[in-house]
């Protein structure tokens, strides 16, 4: 047993010069830190100074001067309603500890990691220790070109991660023998829950509300199925389907596990055939490594496959983040939730990738959406795909044989105590009355086994299992050690041969070309070069808060003390992790004004779901089952309505006024119409329109008076931290996006964390332990994506109260600066009282489009030629761009973006003046690749204008999009969801 200290060469360098200011230095008139009395005049900047882009002197002064205020405090007073504004001395942040320097914070994290125990994990249940190839750790996980990217909604500058996600889809489809896989799910249990509702939607023949599940499902998967089923009126029936016939009655679906929680392998083909004969569809939770050897579910007739890709190079992480998967046959492709990468063509006819189909439809359909999933686990999905690419089919098969060989060796030594003769990696052992003693003895050897019950122990082998581990486990049972892993007999009989798969897999070039580190290194670099991430430029996406993900925040997530602990390990193994979680829960309560926080939800969508589920259960416990109506403003995020529908609520839309605020007259009317049925209202604050609505306290009061609860969507919390607390101005529950306000990287569309925060009366309804079937858990692990929580812990610990408040005010100042500068060129659609916006602003292009034909798409694509990612397009208002600079961008970068937008407006004016036709101008032709310059040029604008719009001597580094504008309609008509063959690349 070893303690979880970082390996040599990783973690904080405590021998260097410390920041003696500790983040608490005072600021002089010129923005320079002032030394405290008696201190040595040797200075490093505080972390807050490193995190916040505009310096606290001249740059901030320029921002404020343009906005028309003299100080950040005056800005707060003008922008934020006085009724909710906290005084700087009474904003709840006094509960936070003093700010630390980067080195000091890393030292505290090292101590927390070191207090954890990294035991040999043989627990299993869908979580297995694995070895991340160093080339992937250094060049993918630790590379900001990958982890700071956003969801690939601008595909022309996202081709690298789209190709990597297509590899993931191909890997899953190949191994499961299904035709279409999506670009990842949040974890295995949530993938199973999505599979359940997919079966019900897709089964048009059955009207039954019943779902049949096998008793050998992973317990956390069973729990989430119950959580998700109850509000939807789905009745779950459990049965041992391997040893008995299907129960009587009709079912819309059947869900089984391969291998099961007990480790057994079952030939599910007869069960699938019987289910189909009864009119039911079947989903199989399948281990992808096992599928390299055994018959895949797709070849047995399964309709849906789900599972996790965690064991493909993604650390245990105390539960996450891990990429789940979901795969179907083509007939159900349009029912598939989440993201789907397909192959299309660009303007020059070249192969190009894009998000397809329901990626957009989910948000457009709102309460009729099939899922509320709007993020996934992109970074982890890419890691898993690259792991498969690096190992290839032969490497994965060899690894699977090694894992299975160790399990066979264990079984050979344990003889007739082994319950199942057919297994892959997990051996279930019958030791009547002796299970606890065996587990305790193994713990003394530094090995964690799984205590199933008083009579049974489960032992799971994985990539990290060694011969020595097998010998140690057998010794704990007092078993005779067989001669070797090939010990031929299983209690006097030949063991079942599980290697029955005959179909090929992973034959596409992505899985055959990159066997050497040199090849993989160059492949990763070539892909990242095709993308725009935060390491290259500002990403001004409104509502997404793409801020700095500091290296000091990121460093500890690769330490074994945080990422090699099993989520179901004994509690005494994880004191450091539990202390970190306890700290974070307390700090988030202080920031938001709520009483309790659960860190379990592993995405904002899951936080929304958990919060609404708490409201629903609160009303049910009070005997108010009739309260099932959720009021949602028309401007709200699409996921709000989808989440409400998922907890069984009816959605009623509240109108907004012409100025963008919620229409309180319409709200009063809706409350009157639904007073007896009102469950809650969901609002985003500041509003989705980017302003502080001054009537928010009154709004909350109206809903409370009618017996409803107030849900405040925390997507825009970056405009509130240190200024106002939703738990104090009327909110009963909020979810928080740690991947927005609190610096966890977006990772190209995941990972994320969406904690749910509640007032005390809802605390008992927070999600519980997923190993408890009645816990209403929403994630497979109790603390969700625990291994990335150190990022947020480090951010808060290094910023401190003053730094957090200054960050919020700087984000507001920067947004108002952009609004002032761009309003003469692109009118700002909404402002609050005093003409202020919050942390983002909406630029209205609708009149420009009407007069010139130039669209928001044209502007977005043209920005790529200027080296920028586009703002958020057509949300929440069609024909607009929503811009959010965050606090991390310095004035030089903000001005460069403003200059680009003004230059683009000048190009639009040229179109309006007839200099360039509407269908052939630099905007409609954008983005421009290097390749398009070398062919024939038949455009009314020059090549130089196309690719160097600011002039060839402009100092900003040139970003070369890898494809021209992509044909979206072609991609949806000709859906291709797996890697093209080598011939396609040759063509």
TrEMBL record:
Annotated source species: Nocardia yunnanensis
GO biological process: glycine decarboxylation via glycine cleavage system
Co-factor requirement: pyridoxal 5'-phosphate
Glycine cleavage system P-protein N-terminal domain location: 49-477, 499-768
Annotated coiled-coil segments of the chain: none
Catalysis performed (reactions): N(6)-[(R)-lipoyl]-L-lysyl-[glycine-cleavage complex H protein] + glycine + H(+) = N(6)-[(R)-S(8)-aminomethyldihydrolipoyl]-L-lysyl-[glycine-cleavage complex H protein] + CO2
CDD domains: GDC-P
Any Gene Ontology CC annotation: glycine cleavage complex
Main function: The glycine cleavage system catalyzes the degradation of glycine. The P protein binds the alpha-amino group of glycine through its pyridoxal phosphate cofactor; CO(2) is released and the remaining methylamine moiety is then transferred to the lipoamide cofactor of the H protein.
Domain of life: Bacteria
Region of interest (Disordered), ranges: 1-39
N6-(pyridoxal phosphate)lysine: residues carrying this PTM: 740
Recorded GO MF terms: glycine binding; glycine dehydrogenase (decarboxylating) activity; pyridoxal phosphate binding
Protein name: Glycine dehydrogenase (decarboxylating)
Domain Glycine dehydrogenase C-terminal, first and last residues per copy: 807-928
SUPFAM superfamilies linked: PLP-dependent transferases
Keywords for this protein: Oxidoreductase, Pyridoxal phosphate
PANTHER family: GLYCINE DEHYDROGENASE (DECARBOXYLATING), MITOCHONDRIAL (PTHR11773:SF1), GLYCINE DEHYDROGENASE, DECARBOXYLATING (PTHR11773)
Major enzyme class: oxidoreductase
